Amino acid sequence: MQIPVVRNILEANARIAADLKDFFAGKGILVLNLMSSPGAGKTTLLERTLTDLAPELRMAVVEGDLQTDNDARRVAATGAQAVQINTEGGCHLTSSQVQEAIKSLDLEGLDILFIENVGNLVCPAEFDVGEDFKVTLLSVAEGDDKPEKYPLMFHISAALVLNKVDLLPYVDFDLDRASRHARVLNECISVFPVSARSREGLDAWYDWLRQRLAAKRASA
Amino acid sequence: MHELSIAQSLIALIEDEMAKHGKKTLLTVKIKHGRLSAVVPEALEMGFTALTMDTRLAGARLELEEIPVVLRCRACSREFTPEGSSAFAPCPGCGEELGHAVVSGRELYIEYLELE
Ligand SMILES: Nc1nc2c(ncn2[C@@H]2O[C@H](COP(=O)(O)OP(=O)(O)OP(=O)(O)O)[C@@H](O)[C@H]2O)c(=O)[nH]1
Ligand SMILES: [Mg+2]
Ligand SMILES: [Zn+2]
Fold first, then answer.
1. Which residue in A5, A120, A186 has the most chain B C-beta atoms within 10 A of its own C-beta, making it the best mutation to test that interface?
2. N or C end of chain B: smaller count of CB under 10 Å?
3. pTM over the 0.90 mark
4. Residues A88-116 pLDDT 10s
């Protein structure tokens, strides 16, 4: 007997993500899902951001990694709250993992929650984790053809951080080409060339965070 | 990659539907997956086989059908499928490059089950 079903296979993840979104909306917390390939600089960008914006914003971090709590310890060293999720081989975070992890955070008065996803340009794209926006990092050491090769990730991201611009003299990465292709995939994507090492370009990224937070609070 | 967790969610849905319909045997699962969702059929089959081994779902047939990417041009509203290997392309009608909406290509769902 053939039974029509037509059910989204990832509906359980989507349902919890939607619950989380409501929960965060109620608290007025801006939630960002940071994605990139391994080593593009997510944790370094967070260390900078948490340090530089500490005087004006309360922020916390959920760290997703295959193994170790190295990244959670790195961001906790800035003074921000951090909780580590080890996916034990899982190539992406799921909404239920985030739901569990935030129980150990004090969310009262929080402004921004950053969720650093597992380093991977494919799988995290399919799994919402309750975020307002997805942010993709791409480092200039990886090649400017990444938007073409991983279209979905760039299509669904609100912002693209092009990190490690201090290395531009040593690599053949064309910033315009990467931005142009990202805009083909997503016309509205905000592009931020930065160096988390030299701090170049970070102010524009910080302004975007402030604007997104203000917009979220205004719409509440 | 993420096919193993997709297989896990798939199995949970199948068990749910079997219980709902009071059936004990799964013959076929028909899945439709959009090209943008980047499911590798072989990996999903492997994950499903591995996770159903020695269960009542073992031996069921997985039928996968890819749904092509369809974009809608924001300038002239024409719907088109990009040619070749690339998932995005300029509109063949008016040449507009930016701002196309994804009409289809992101799906990942069970279309039907054959149960006994
Ligand atoms: N030259 C340069 N190196 C950077 C920059 N940002 C990060 N790095 C270096 O890149 C390496 C990886 O940085 P991480 O911040 O750990 O990258 P990640 O994306 O968090 O890595 P995973 O969590 O393992 O996926 C480290 O050695 C950083 O010091 C930058 O702007 N310029
Ligand atoms: Mg990291
Ligand atoms: Zn057109």
1. A5
2. C
3. yes
4. 888 899 999 999 999 999 999 999 999 99
